[in-house]
């Protein structure tokens, strides 16, 4: 087995889990089509197989859009069942009103689709309950030894305390390295041994799969020969920055250094990848979304007008200066969700329970409806669908001074949604801005058409479950 396959994000248990759900979905479709054939008109075998493939692929896509394949999903069993039911409802709408309208010859019947959905809902809920109860994903967790117990290593201890954060690995312990600074790692988590002479022996005797280099001082402190021997024997050796990037989907800005920025793969600004969903595709998507959402926008505008616009003469829309691609300013367009005098005392961060937000504003902010007018910014080429969210110049000016590499997020076009919006809750401070920057830098480094599409699909979960501000 190769190192890549051994230590990739998709473990054996993950693959078994996905395979199990694929089989159950195909089985649900085949069983439903068989029952339909038995009690109604016969369905040819080739139609059954094609429908099974369509049903399986469509359900997997809908499940992704509601977060069922989020590795760090934290939901009760009741919450999982709710998402499964919503997934199958979305799937039924997608197949019945879009796919089968385009390919009517493949349509078996509405009763078949209802039966397949009901069977799949039962099987998927039971299957996920079984996986959760037995914690089957533990069978393929790799065993990790952290070389270091100082400030750098403590970041792993602080950020990966929950089981959901360590879904793919188990930390055996932290080995103090000479030169480490004092850090708050519990004594019971420390493993002390003569690492200069016995590292390879310790690794083999304790079935260590991966070594993470997290010491504060490296010069002449690490047993290079032992690390080389571990590497040649199939034990992965990884630097803490890459480890955090791989496991959390963010780049730890407080750990990176200039040479890493220069030499790291993926941060080059190749013209083809400045925006993966280029203007033409963004234009098509914006037009399609406008044709679907214009009734919602019309109702929203009317509600804002009736709530306070009619009395105060306050505008329905809100234009605000933001920093865009290459640091160029532009005016973002939104539905007004705050009182018209919200910034009479100057610009300030919006907070979770901001008293400046109107009643209508709370609803449209929660479901991101206030962002819909930004489709006009997309049509103007000022924004894309996916990218870091644009920030206000007043805040950017200070954030650039306080947060290293903050300006790098302006190397790509800002977006309606982004990786940080999927991974981090709504932020209202400079500290939150720094946390979001970690995800923005990860997106800039790994941006691709596939990642953009995944972010767009997963954004449905944010809108559907009201994860806006």
From TrEMBL:
Transmembrane intervals: 16-37, 49-69, 81-103, 109-131, 281-306
A GO CC term assigned to this protein in UniProt: membrane
UniProt keyword terms in alphabetical order: Membrane, Transferase, Transmembrane, Transmembrane helix
InterPro entries in the cross-refs: Bact_transf, EPS_sugar_tfrase, Sugar_tfrase_EpsB_2
Superkingdom of this protein's organism: Bacteria
Location, primary (coarse class): membrane
Keyword Membrane assigned: yes
Domain Bacterial sugar transferase: 281-464
GO MF entries: phosphotransferase activity, for other substituted phosphate groups
Membrane protein topology class: Multi-pass membrane protein
UniProt keyword annotation of Ligase present: no
Localisation per UniProt entry: Membrane
NCBIfam families: EPS_sugtrans, EpsB_2
Family named by the database record: Belongs to the bacterial sugar transferase family.
UniProt-recorded name of the protein: TIGR03013 family PEP-CTERM/XrtA system glycosyltransferase
Source organism: Rheinheimera lutimaris
